[in-house]
Design brief:
- The protein is α/β, with parallel strands linked by helices and 138 residues long.
- Strands 1-2-5-6-7-8 form a six-stranded mixed β-sheet, covered by helices on one side.
- α2 packs parallel to α3.
- The longest helix is centred in the middle third of the chain and has 15 residues.
- It is globular.
């Protein structure tokens, strides 16, 4: 699979199925502590870096295969996930495919944008947002 990885063990989340909608090292920060190393595509521009239909097709397959082996569906991966323009559509699709909670691990730098807020704050949708070390749940 190109966009999905895991399940992987997580100290915070148990077993997590990762969804990676961002090309490697695409971020809007240059954190010295980043596990991926130096950012090679420094951007604040939100776009659909990969075809949404391809990501969803992999999500359908991976969730079906792993539904009983995961505790969370996590959007993170190789860069800042809120840079993916249609993140809300991916989250809603994950919630349609599974009753598992969804987590978005973000640096939080785009949370001031209303479009990003609407992507992440989905009433009644059991979401977790990790912004550094803070967990926010609705």
């Amino acid at each position: 699979m190109k966009y999905i990885y895991g399940p992987v063990p997580s100290r915070r989340l148990g077993y997590s199925l990762g969804i990676d909608p961002i090309p490697s090292k695409t971020c809007n920060y240059q954190c010295i502590y980043c596990q991926l190393g130096r950012t090679t595509n420094l951007t604040n521009f939100r776009e659909n870096y990969y075809p949404k239909k391809e990501i969803i097709a992999e999500m359908e397959q991976a969730i079906k295969l792993n539904e009983n082996n995961i505790d969370y569906i996590t959007f993170v991966g190789s860069g800042e996930p809120t840079l993916y323009k249609d993140l809300k559509d991916l989250i809603l699709k994950a919630k349609e495919l599974s009753e598992k909670p969804v987590c978005v691990i973000t640096n939080g730098s785009l949370l001031y944008q209303e479009e990003v807020q609407r992507s992440l704050i989905l009433k009644g949708k059991n979401m977790s947002i990790f912004d550094k070390e803070y967990k926010i749940e609705d």
